[in-house]
Amino acid sequence: xxxxxxxxxxxxxxxxxxxxxxxxxxxxxxxxxxxxxxxxxxxxxxxxxxxxxxxxxxxxxxxxxxxxxxxxxxxxxxxxxxxxxxxxxxxxxxxxxxxxxxxxxxxxxxxxxxxxxxxxxxxxxxxxxxxxxxxxxxxxxxxxxxxxxxxxxxxxxxxxxxxxxxxxxxxxxxxxxxxxxxxxxxxxxxxxxxxxxxxxxxxxxxxxxxxxxxxxxxxxxxxxxxxxxxxxxxxxxxxxxxxxxxxxxxxxxxxxxxxxxxxxxxxxxxxxxxxxxxxxxxxxxxxxxxxxxxxxxxxxxxxxxxxxxxxxxxxxxxxxxxxxxxxxxxx
Length: 331
Description:
The chain is of the alpha+beta class. It folds into two domains: 2-141, Aminopeptidase (3-Layer(aba) Sandwich), CATH 3.40.630; 152-314, Gcn5-related N-acetyltransferase (GNAT) (Aminopeptidase, 3-Layer(aba) Sandwich). It has helices at residues 9-29, 40-52, 102-116, 131-139, 177-183, 186-192, 202-215, 270-284, 299-307, and strands spanning 2-6, 56-63, 66-78, 82-87, 92-94, 121-127, 143-152, 167-171, 222-228, 231-241, 253-261, 289-295, 311-320. Strands 1, 2, 3, 4, 5, 6, 7, 8, 9, 10, 11, 12 and 13 form a 13-stranded mixed β-sheet that branches. α1 crosses α2 and α5 runs antiparallel to α7.
């Protein structure tokens, strides 16, 4: 008989063993993920780090004295989603001897409390290597939101001329702050259109503009700007991505948080030329991997980045429960 109990100290070692085994499976599909977390001691550090957070809790599925699965979750709130539950990449693991539907049982048990306290939006980071587990979440009403992918630079070789024609590509700097403010909304405006329909508020627009201007003075940023004549044709910005306790961050990796091509110049190969140039430059900088993510309903991004060699290894799923469940029980 399976029991669902709150996570306690006595469960953590077995939970760590489940996570380490899950990660070993993931690395067979995506070997660039950090090897260290195949070890139980390293996996335990990750779980303990999560449990130290003030708004993180969890449940364990126990059969007899054996922990056969666990679910950690964090209570969060922001202007975009309101109150929501986040289940992070390292937050879920089940024994490979159990049926995948154990995920549903864990979710149902924990979720009952979330709903009782008014948390109707649930967000989940899911490893992609085991599709039967992904399907369990989709069948529970979750849907795709975001994909996360890695490009291996070791064997990267740009196809054809890096920069044919009159396209000029240069490194950006402090003098480009006004320019970055102008291009800051290219991606957001595109995301607000069909079929993404991702809303952008005036407040969000102002925040984005400020953050883009700050990039020009950030000494940690790798910024490239493409120009065609006197017009900006596109830009890329990268940062070193480091997290010693992240199962999803390759070693010696740079993240691509923002990139875009001038909407008036799309379809001319500028995006590919700029990407080839930047990838080659980041390889020269000594990076082994690039990390990128995109909104799955964004057709351009969903097509463009995988075509350039980015391999999705993780997805973000979400589900929004009808809040009427708080009072509508058929009584």
